[in-house]
Amino acid sequence: MTEMRTLKVALLGCGNVGAQVARILIEDADALAARTGARLELSGIAVRNVNSKRDVELPQELFTTDAETLVKDADLVIELMGGIEPARTLILSALTNGACVVTGNKALLAQDGPTLYEAADKAGVQLSFEAAVAGAIPILRPIRDSLSGDRITRVLGIVNGTTNFILDQMDSTGAQFADALAEAQRLGYAEADPTADVEGHDAAAKAAILATLSFHTRFALENVHCEGITSVTAADIAAAKDAGFVIKLLAIAEKLAVTDTETGGGEGVSVRVHPTLLPREHPLAAVRGAFNAVFIEAENAGELMFYGQGAGGTPTASAVLGDLVSAARRLVLGGPQRTETTTGHVPALPIDASVTSYYIGLDVADQPGVLARIAQLFAGNGVSIETMRQTIHRDAESNVESAELRIVTHRASEAALAATVEAVKGLDVINSVTSVLRVEGV
Ligand code: NAP
């Protein structure tokens, strides 16, 4: 019997995810070897402080602060340090040395993905990052492998558990944003500094990765339009609920036809993150708490949804190990490593060109002819109204009546909608525009 080959695995980082990856590599060594066709030997773990207490007991002699030396001697490198540097330099060094790299570092991929993808291409080695989007959920491999014979048209993702928890709290308890955030922090779902989550930056990084794989074109963070959830109010949530919607922070990547007078048109990809109204019966509306889900529409497959835990040490470690076994198998079998295809060449569209439905809340004077004037103004700006609901309020003190209008439009461009809202604001019968939110899934 021929002896099984041993592949050296360098682990960079031993925090929430890294510690669980190390544990599984040691505890499940035999099973992983059987699935891989090679023994995966944890050759060392690079950290900042070798004496820190870890979540799991690991052999002390594995720890080092010399990540560079560890990387030089590895067949496979797992980067779970996070941040831009030194992660970027270490990954580039590993790829150049011919090692396959597995990472969960969405911030780095969104900021400098193209440099890393190119380095992997050039060296003919694999760069895998399933853990970077939606934690444990297998979503990147289905997009690039299982759906590689299809054409993806749209991806809608709840890819940030913190914001989903906050919005779900607001929806189920009527809480204001600040109170729901405080509850998320108390339960450990939100960090002390929640900026990256609540401002949508984390979701935007994942949107760039989803768009890159779905449309075979490299999209960077600067291509993603990003709005967070800090301005979503309890009143927005209540009005949405009343109208049969739920508000979710969605990462959206979709292919759209573009009309360009110079080129005669073509296709572009709109990549964006923003609070979005979804009909309560939409599959993504059922994603509660800190869970994640990605909903894909493809020309032949139709609609698909992937659901699960989007974070956490052990769930995320599952995705990392999956990538590791896959890369190791390829090393065992030989031949070229798989790299991303970038044959799409579809341009990123500015937010003005994105097309969606909208929900608009208006506080208007209760006068005859107001509805007709508003409807006319929408039509004049090329935005067609799907539904319009009116509720009358009487001010107890002044006894003056006003009407609350809730309008849902058909799909229209962002530019047309913005022009419509500006025009509506100029009408003398409008007291205020109470909310403008995008709607998907209608
Ligand atoms: P973490 O708990 O903060 O752990 C980071 C680890 O990296 C620590 O062990 C730290 O060493 C080490 N480290 C940081 N900077 C270093 C440096 N300059 N040199 C050497 N070691 C360094 O992070 P995490 O939550 O496990 O996340 C790791 C990565 O996975 C991040 O990119 C994150 O975005 C991604 N990810 C995390 C989750 C999740 O649920 N946590 C989900 C998906 C993706 P010390 O321990 O000595 O400080």
Report the CATH C-level class of the largest domain. Answer: Alpha Beta
Helix content: 25-40%
- Please tell me the CATH architecture of the largest domain by its name: 2-Layer Sandwich
Q: What percentage of amino acids are in beta strands?
A: 25-35%
Rg over alpha carbons: 25 Å
Bound small molecules, which ones? NADP nicotinamide-adenine-dinucleotide phosphate
What structural class is derived from the secondary structure elements? alpha/beta
Average pLDDT for all residues: 94
* N-C termini distance: 61 Å
The total strand number stands at: 17
- How would a textbook summarize the main sheet? 11 strands, mixed
Q: CATH superfamily of the largest domain, please?
A: Dihydrodipicolinate Reductase, domain 2
Task: Enter the CATH topology name of the largest domain.
Answer: Dihydrodipicolinate Reductase, domain 2
Domain unit count? 3
Return residue spans where pLDDT drops below 50 for at least 5 consecutive residues: none
Individual helix count:
14
* Overall 3D form: elongated
Structure commentary:
- It is a single chain.
- The protein contains 14 helices and 17 strands.
- Helix 5 runs parallel beside helix 10 (201-214).
- The protein is α/β, with parallel strands linked by helices.
- The strands form 2 sheets. Strands 7, 8, 9, 10, 11, 12, 13, 14, 15, 16 and 17 form an 11-stranded mixed β-sheet that branches.
- The termini are far apart.
- The chain binds NADP nicotinamide-adenine-dinucleotide phosphate.
- NADP nicotinamide-adenine-dinucleotide phosphate is lined by residues 13-18, 46-49, 52, 67, 80-82, 86, 104-106, 131, 135, 311-312, 316.
